[in-house]
Amino acid sequence: MHEKVIGQRYLRELFGAIGVYWLLLTLSIVFGKNLPNGPARTLILAIPVIGVALAVWAIVRQMRRVDEFVRMVTLQNIAIAAAITASLTFSYGFLELAGFPRVSMFVVWPVMAVSWLLIVLVRKITNQ
To answer: Which parts of the chain span the membrane according to its record (predicted)?
Structure first.
């Protein structure tokens, strides 16, 4: 029961942070796109980082709440996902040198998230 309660709390915190992120992202795009280049525009366009910081805060809180086994498995999954992400993004850097289109840094997190999801699914399917 304890795991269910802390899991629900985590989801509320995380999705609340994502909601803040989307709201700030929308506002920053609406109000920032027409501003001239300069500090005000930079500040307005960077304001969604507040939502990202809240998501990091929710993740850190959750990692402190879960037991050692869950923490260890989660850390293993993240480490493997980081290694896959590093190898894919590093390899693509060489392809860019060969003339492939440049890719935004915004691609890195989705690559890591998909890697992480696939690792979790494979571990569930193989019971590891």
So the answer is: 12-31, 43-60, 72-94, 100-122
